[in-house]
Amino acid sequence: MCIGIPMQVIEAATGRALCADGDSRVWVDTRLVDAVQPGVWLLVFAGAAREQISAERAALVSDALQALQASARGDHAAVERLFADLIGREPQLPPHLRAQSPTNDNQDS
Fold it and tell me: What is the DSSP string of 28-72?
């Protein structure tokens, strides 16, 4: 499984950017994405930016990664706090699949 890490650009240069992940700073290859500016969020995997993302999406990905760590520790309260937007609701199909979903249940009588 590939897991992208959200990182914020601190300094941009040709083909690379100095990015922050918490207290750590690392140079990231940015040749796979459009030109970046300081403040932009990137989803980074294996030292390369895969896409530019919004601050909101960066926060959601960060929460999901923290929830994975909490789950490994057995900290179920943290998992529920970090996935609060998913607790107590039914999963929703993405819009492109809703049109294909049958409107009536085809139950056997």
Answer: EE-TTSS---TT-EEEEETTEEEEEE-HHHHHHHHHHHHHHHHHH
pTM of the predicted model as reported, rounded to 2 decimal places: 0.73
- How many Cβ atoms are within 10 Å of 74's Cβ, its own excluded? 8
- Residue scoring higher pLDDT (104 or 20): 20
Give me the residue label for tokens 């941009």. 12
In tens, the pLDDT along 58-75 reads 999 999 889 888 988 998
Write the single-letter amino acid at 40. Answer: V
Domains and CATH numbers, the chain: 5-53 (2.30.30.140), 54-87 (no CATH)
Dihedral sign, CA of 75, 80, 81, 82?
Answer: positive
